[in-house]
Amino acid sequence: MVSKPVIARNRNSPGHGERFTGLELLFDLIFVFCVAEIAKTYREDASGRTAITAVLLFVPVWWAWVGITFAADRFPADDTIAQGLVIAAAGATGVMGLAIPVVPGTGEVPFALGYATVRFMVAAYYLHIRATARDGGRLARFYATGFSAIGTVWLASTLLPSSLRPFIWGVAMVVDVLMPRLASLWGRLLPVDRSHLAERCAAFVIIVIGEQIVDTLTLASDHELTTWHRRVLVAEAGVTAVALWWGFFERGSWQRRYNTLEGTRSGQSAATVCAYLHFPLIVGITATAAGIQLGLSRADEAIGVPAATAIALGAAAYLLSMNTMSWVLRVPRADSLTNTRLVLCAALLLLLLCGRSWSPTSFLLAVALILTLHAVTGQVRGPRDQRLSRDFPPKAPRSHRQTQHPTFTRSFRQDSWR
């Protein structure tokens, strides 16, 4: 029986104009299940140890999503084998999600088996599509080798005593997270499809926010909203969710951020922004929602340290991650809101110090106002700064880049794929 050849998908060809596929959305939903399980774990045991465990478990969950997303972005394929590998990775991710509530404990082995399977599926995907790679498959072979080794380590950890697993997992995750950096040292990372990757990141953020809204409403329904405290708290939670969405997508700024992911060095920029810096953003959104849900369960009491910390630090992580993205991508001042976000983060920290004895409704009202101010400031400031930039364009600083020899520029462009 002759196997079918790899079908490389061209997103610009007729019939393939979509930015992402239905399979990719299905894949995202499985990962959001894992995110919801992490939030639920903290909600049911709001302690410092649980918070640390939740963040640590978030790393392999997030990196599993990153692995498949980047592979499908650089090497899109529509053949049956490629789709089967993605579906298998999604199933393994579901196993990870089911194991999260009992990690540490009896869930350690299935969690490790799930992550090892995801890594093996990503490695197999790279090996499968390497023939279609524009660099002759060099990057694909590097990732396939690395992910196979990492998957083997996770698989072997299931045979070790439970006390050794956290150390083994930690070492393996450090290597895993550094894979893009190691790949860039070994040879230049291939550019990404900036439109597709931007849409994938945006869709994942929306799905995470939506899932947290559903979880909050479900919890509110369980409490039957018998008191005005809970009713007000649910309304404030809705405003907070909208503010998180609005602040991330206001004026299409997310699209402008990702528009900088172009050129021959876009692979390295994408690894920094989409892989590394979206991690604290997603963690921040999840932590904020977990804190709100924790406050909802005790709406008639003081908010307490666990809920207040999750809400305030989660919102601060959300703002700071966008600030770092703007700095890394050199987003123009009209779109960055860097100073505004720093002031708002300081306000959140002050609120955390002073508001731990407040009621959940009062505390969340203050956070909702801070996040709404962030979104509204972007709406007001953007057009104003753009008008100022038109009327008083900044003078270009003199630097060696303006006198760069054209021969050097041509050589750099020719070598950029090597």
Automatic annotation (TrEMBL):
Q: Does the keyword Transmembrane apply?
A: yes
Q: Does the keyword Hydrolase apply?
A: no
- Keywords recorded for this protein, A-Z: Membrane, Transmembrane, Transmembrane helix
**InterPro entries hit by this protein:** Low_temperature_requirement_A
Membrane spanning residue stretches: 20-39, 51-72, 84-103, 109-127, 139-160, 232-249, 270-296, 302-320, 341-358, 364-380
Please note every region of biased composition (Basic and acidic residues).
Answer: 382-393
Region spans: Disordered: 382-418
The record's annotation in Pfam families points to: LtrA
Q: Tell me where on the tree of life, at the top rank, the source sits.
A: Bacteria
| PANTHER family linked to this entry | BLL5714 PROTEIN
Q: What is this protein called?
A: Low temperature requirement protein LtrA
